[in-house]
Design goal:
Blueprint: E1 4-9, H1 13-24, E2 29-35, H2 38-48, E3 52-56, H3 64-74, E4 79-84, H4 89-97, E5 102-105, H5 110-121, E6 126-127, H6 129-141, H7 154-164, H8 169-176, H9 180-194, H10 199-208
Parallel strand pairs: 1-2, 1-3, 3-4, 4-5, 5-6
C-alpha cells in the first residue's frame, strides 16, 4: 500500500516537528515537506502535489484561508485539512468554503488528526468533535428571541460595518453623504433592534458570529 504523502504548513517550528514525528512514526504516512509560511506552502504544494496538506489558518504573508484557495488551483489533487486554535464553527465553515476537505483544532488528539487524514484521503469531509460539539451547543442554546443582523436594513448593515471599523458618526455621515443626526438615528434603531446597550456591545455581537450578517 502506497504511503499518504503529507505537507505540513504551520508557522511554529515546534508544531511542525511534533506533527512530523507523530505522522512519520506511522507506516501509512510520509511527511514530504514542512513549511513555515503560506507562500512556501503553495509553492511546495504545486511542486510536490502531496495527498494531504495540514494547513494552519494563521499564516504569513497571507492567511491559511487564502493559501487553501491558491492550493486548490495550483495543486487540485491535494486535499487540505484546516488546523487552528479557533474552535468556532464559523472558522471551519470559512475553510471549507475555500476548498478544504476537513477541519481540526489544535486541541484535537493525534488520533483524531490521523482519523481526519484517513477520511479526507478517502475523499470524505471531516470536522473534528470539538467543532461539532460547539455547533451543537450553539443550536441548543439559541433562543427564539435572539436578535439577528438580518433584521436590519441594507443601510443599517452598512452603518454596522462602519461602526465595526471604528468610524465616528461624523466620518460615517461623510462616507454616505447623510446628516450626522441621521447616522445617530440609524445607530439608535440598530441597537434597539438588536437589543444591545452600546456600540461596544454591538461590535462584540458582530464578532461573535461572522455568518450572522445577511442583507435583506
Amino acid at each position: 500500500m502506497d504511503k499518504i504523502n503529507i505537507l505540513i504548513a504551520d508557522d511554529h517550528k515546534l508544531i511542525r516537528d511534533a506533527w512530523s514525528f507523530i505522522l512519520n512514526s506511522d507506516s501509512r504516512f510520509d511527511v514530504i515537506s514542512a513549511c513555515g509560511n503560506a507562500e512556501e506552502a503553495v509553492q511546495e504544494a504545486k511542486a510536490k502535489s502531496p495527498h494531504i496538506i495540514l494547513m494552519d489558518i494563521n499564516m504569513e504573508p497571507f492567511s491559511g484561508l487564502e493559501a487553501t484557495r491558491k492550493i486548490c488551483i495550483e495543486s487540485p489533487s491535494s486535499r487540505v485539512i484546516g488546523v487552528s486554535m479557533h474552535a468556532h464553527p464559523g472558522y471551519a465553515k470559512k475553510m471549507l468554503k475555500m476548498g478544504a476537505f476537513g477541519y481540526i483544532t489544535k486541541n484535537s488528539s493525534s488520533e483524531e488528526m490521523i482519523n481526519a487524514i484517513l477520511a479526507v484521503n478517502d475523499g470524505n469531509k471531516y470536522i473534528c468533535e470539538e467543532i461539532k460539539n460547539n455547533l451543537c451547543d450553539q443550536v441548543m442554546n439559541e433562543k427564539n428571541d435572539t436578535p439577528k443582523l438580518n433584521s436590519l436594513t441594507r443601510r443599517e448593515i452598512q452603518i454596522v460595518d462602519s461602526i465595526k471599523e471604528g468610524f465616528s458618526s461624523r466620518k460615517i455621515s461623510e462616507d454616505f453623504n447623510i446628516a450626522v443626526r441621521t447616522v445617530e438615528a440609524h445607530r439608535y434603531h440598530i441597537l434597539k433592534k438588536l437589543k444591545l446597550k452600546n456600540s461596544i456591545s454591538l461590535v462584540k455581537f458582530i464578532n461573535s458570529d461572522p455568518y450572522k450578517i445577511r442583507y435583506q
